[in-house]
Each structure stands twice: as structure tokens, then as C-alpha cells.
């Protein structure tokens, strides 16, 4: 009986680990099959507004998958899926004139979106809350904070009443970890990083080896 439970526990642990690896692989594959674009603009405005460029990259990946012409059912526009009303508020903060056409320009879209990320990071003093606010709205996040529904560092995020906002932080951070794996301490350039291909080629062999060990 002990041998049976020991084998069962070992099997369950193996399934959990394989599941984690598979989840990472799915995100990595999705990231690798859509090479990064507009890197120069991302680096420029990330430096100007003191935001991690990999975070900007991750938000763009989740928001539009690098589709410049993306438009949502909520009328969010462009690479960083900016809503006109929010964009007008951003422009007021930046002291520039707002036009709806500017959201369709990749350079301007990245500029406004990165500034907004920077504002949210400074306002909440927490990356998780800033990410959620980018999707769910700054007012909503402040209300959830005031009511004790959420806290810093992802605390209470499972209680967020808006499904999309609740999972948004997870999606952005998964992509961030993938980009960090391949681009941290390496130069960020347009196109697919060669390590993506190498990793994907080796992943199958590593997974088979893991299964044999169990």
C-alpha cells in the first residue's frame, strides 16, 4: 500500500511539473512566433518615462499582438490599445493636443501608452496594481484598494470582480518572464531572438528526458 501511494504521489508531482513546463512552453511558443516590433520606439519611450522596456513589450503583446490596426469592442486603438477618453486624459497630463488620429500612429501610441504605464507605476507604487489598472481602470483599482479587495504584490487579485482584469496581470507577467528569459542582458532588436528557436528546438527533447526520469 505504501508503495502504491508513493508511486501515486510521484505521478501527481510529475503531472504538475509537466503542466507547468507545458504552460511556459505555450506562452513561449506564442511569443516566439510573433517577433517583437517597434523596438526603437519602445526603448526610446521606456527610457524617457523610466519604464522597464520588457514590461512595455509584454503589454503590447497581450493588448494587440503587435497589430498596429487593432481595435477592440471597447474602441481601444492600436498597439497599446488606448481608449480615446483615457488618451485625452493622458494628453492633458503630458500637455499635448489630442486627436483621435494620433492613436493610429505606432510611435505616438507607444509614447502615450508608456507614459500611462509610468503614471500608474508611480501612482500605485506597485507593478501588479499598475498592470491591473492599465486594463481595469485606475479608478476601479483605487476602489478595490480602498475596500481592501486587493493589495500590493498581487494580494487578493483572485477577488477582482472583473474577469478580464483578474487574468490580465497573469498574462502580462507570463509574457514578461518569457521576454526576460531571452532578452535580459541581451540587446533588444526587431525580429525573433535566436534563443527562441534554440529553446523551442530543445524543449521537446528536455520534456522527453524528464518523462523518462519519472
Kindly report how far apart the N and C termini lie. 19 Å
CATH arch. level architecture of the largest domain: Orthogonal Bundle
Taken together, the total number of domains comes to 2
Radius of gyration: 20 Å
> Regions with pLDDT < 50 over 5+ consecutive residues?
none
Strand content of the residues, in percent? under 5%
Number of helices: 9
Q: Please write the CATH class name of the largest domain.
A: Mainly Alpha
**If you average the pLDDT, what whole number results?**
82
- What would the CATH topology of the largest domain be? Lysozyme
Please sum up the structure shown.
The protein has 214 residues and is mainly alpha-helical. It has 9 helices and no strands.
Written overview of the protein:
The chain is mostly helical. The chain contains 9 helices and no strands. It has helices at residues 2-32, 39-48, 53-64, 84-94, 106-124, 127-136, 138-146, 163-183, 194-213. The two termini are 19 Å apart. The mean pLDDT is 82.
Helices and strands in order:
Layout: H1 2-32, H2 39-48, H3 53-64, H4 84-94, H5 106-124, H6 127-136, H7 138-146, H8 163-183, H9 194-213
Helix pairs in contact: 1-8, 1-9, 2-5, 3-8, 4-5, 5-6, 6-7, 6-8
Amino acid at each position: 500500500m505504501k508503495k502504491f501511494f508513493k508511486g501515486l504521489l510521484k505521478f501527481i508531482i510529475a503531472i504538475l511539473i509537466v503542466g507547468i513546463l507545458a504552460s511556459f512552453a505555450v506562452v513561449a511558443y506564442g511569443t516566439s512566433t510573433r517577433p517583437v516590433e517597434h523596438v526603437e520606439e519602445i526603448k526610446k519611450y521606456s527610457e524617457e518615462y523610466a519604464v522597464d522596456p520588457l514590461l512595455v513589450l509584454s503589454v503590447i503583446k497581450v493588448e494587440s499582438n503587435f497589430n498596429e490596426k487593432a481595435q477592440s469592442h471597447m474602441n481601444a486603438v492600436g498597439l497599446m490599445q488606448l481608449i480615446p477618453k483615457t488618451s485625452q486624459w493622458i494628453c492633458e497630463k503630458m500637455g499635448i493636443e489630442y486627436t483621435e488620429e494620433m492613436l493610429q500612429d505606432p510611435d505616438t501610441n507607444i509614447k502615450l501608452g508608456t507614459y500611462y504605464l509610468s503614471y500608474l507605476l508611480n501612482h500605485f507604487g506597485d507593478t501588479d496594481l499598475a498592470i491591473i489598472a492599465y486594463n481595469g481602470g485606475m479608478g476601479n483599482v483605487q476602489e478595490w484598494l480602498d475596500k481592501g479587495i486587493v493589495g500590493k504584490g498581487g494580494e487578493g487579485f483572485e477577488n477582482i470582480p472583473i474577469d478580464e482584469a483578474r487574468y490580465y496581470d497573469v498574462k502580462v507577467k507570463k509574457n514578461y518572464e518569457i521576454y526576460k528569459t531571452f532578452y535580459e542582458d541581451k540587446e533588444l532588436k526587431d525580429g525573433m531572438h535566436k534563443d527562441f528557436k534554440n529553446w523551442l528546438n530543445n524543449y521537446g527533447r528536455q520534456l522527453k528526458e524528464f518523462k523518462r526520469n519519472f
